[in-house]
């Protein structure tokens, strides 16, 4: 007999598991599947060494999913976001401005955690929920939708039925492709190196983004490691430059890394292996179809600037949870409302982050000089500075 669920989540990344936990905590029966089991230890091969900053509005949906109490003990607050322009002739800071969350809120901008730890805690939360079934190692490959339900074919040969299918299965989403929903993709010719470092100068809960060319070099605070301050690094560069950096001996890589970091936190020491991630922008033509909602990277992808990516995904989930009731789950009215609520905001952020990324990449010295002047102007105008901070974290004045 075919298994029936209220919700099937295709995708067991952080966004997908959070969706399963949120719907499960609301009392729905949930199946979550992913062809790749999550890697939940930093030292394991294939672990995700990136980090995620959960901005203020994301905490509410994490609480509804029963996850925030698990994350909170490990979270590093992000009180200040500092932007440094080092785009002069020499790789040294020439403009530096700190955007303090105290200007707009009595809370930090957000809280930072490593992705491998988030996956570990998500898996533990799903195991607590008797109405949630998590099947790592199994993916989705076929989809037929009807007015009353979605029929989802799994890679183990079985078919399950759901009132709502949540496609959270990545930028190459098989469920989106099965529905024939197209995407608009922008390629920047960039990749990102993600790794952890220790450094002698404390980060003091400040996230620091250093702009020169090729893309930002970003420090995100992590808990101390071996008695030393520790940060997650995302270093964005052109594809050929990332390949060159990857090929360097560790000592030579550290030398290049210390030049690019402008010495702001003293000599940096690698504290993890290097991982590489492609950089694109992407947005689906629409975020819904019959009995199906697209969320997270199945719906949208942005470069890792301003902590927008996973927070946009959690805003998707928050909208779905707000709109879902036992009576309306998966109905055309619910899904149309979801698309109307999310698409304009996502489209604006995909465009805006793409523009910021291109500005961070520029090599021309006159354009880099213009970028530094623009940063000065934005910071000097207090109303503009506050508005940009509110837009960035998704809160309103």
From TrEMBL:
Record bears the keyword Iron: no
Essential cofactor(s): FAD
Gene3D superfamilies named among the record's database cross-references: FAD/NAD(P)-binding domain
Protein's pathway: Cofactor biosynthesis; ubiquinone biosynthesis
GO molecular function annotation: FAD binding; monooxygenase activity; oxidoreductase activity, acting on paired donors, with incorporation or reduction of molecular oxygen
Family to which this protein belongs: Belongs to the UbiH/COQ6 family.
Protein name from the UniProt record: 2-octaprenyl-6-methoxyphenyl hydroxylase
Gene source species: Roseinatronobacter bogoriensis subsp. barguzinensis
């Amino acid at each position: 007999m075919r298994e029936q669920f209220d919700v099937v989540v295709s995708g067991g990344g952080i966004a997908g598991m959070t969706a399963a936990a949120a719907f499960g905590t609301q009392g729905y029966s949930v199946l979550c599947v992913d062809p790749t089991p999550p890697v939940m230890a930093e030292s394991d091969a294939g672990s995700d060494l990136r980090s995620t900053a959960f901005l203020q509005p994301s905490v509410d949906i994490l609480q509804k999913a029963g996850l925030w109490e698990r994350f909170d003990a490990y979270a590093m607050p992000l009180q200040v976001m500092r932007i440094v322009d080092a785009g002069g002739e020499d790789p040294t800071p020439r403009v530096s401005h700190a955007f303090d969350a105290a200007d707009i809120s009595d809370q930090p901008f957000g809280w930072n955690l490593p992705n491998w730890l988030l996956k570990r805690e998500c898996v533990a939360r799903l195991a607590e929920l008797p109405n949630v079934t998590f099947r790592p190692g199994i993916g989705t490959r076929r989809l037929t939708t009807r007015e009353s339900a979605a029929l989802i074919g799994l890679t183990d040969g079985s078919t399950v039925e759901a009132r709502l299918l949540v496609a959270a299965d990545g930028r190459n989403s098989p469920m989106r492709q099965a529905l024939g929903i197209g995407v608009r993709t922008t390629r920047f010719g960039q990749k990102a190196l993600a790794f952890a470092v220790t450094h002698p100068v404390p980060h003091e809960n400040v996230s620091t983004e250093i702009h020169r060319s090729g893309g930002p070099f970003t420090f995100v605070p992590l808990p101390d490691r071996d008695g030393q301050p520790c940060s997650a690094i995302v270093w964005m560069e052109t594809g050929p430059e990332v390949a060159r950096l990857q090929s360097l001996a560790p000592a030579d890589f550290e030398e290049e890394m210390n030049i690019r970091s402008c010495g702001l936190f003293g000599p940096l020491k690698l504290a993890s292996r290097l991982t590489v991630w492609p950089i694109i922008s992407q947005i689906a033509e629409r975020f819904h179809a019959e009995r199906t909602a697209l969320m997270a990277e199945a719906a949208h992808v942005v470069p890792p600037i301003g902590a927008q990516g996973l927070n946009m995904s959690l805003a998707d989930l928050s909208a779905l949870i707000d709109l879902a009731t036992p009576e309306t789950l998966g109905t055309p009215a619910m899904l149309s409302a979801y698309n109307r609520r999310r698409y304009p905001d996502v489209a604006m952020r995909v465009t805006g982050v793409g523009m910021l990324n291109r500005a961070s990449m520029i090599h021309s010295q006159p354009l880099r000089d213009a970028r530094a002047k623009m940063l000065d102007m934005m910071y000097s105008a207090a109303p503009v500075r506050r508005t940009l901070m509110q837009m960035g974290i998704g809160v309103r004045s």
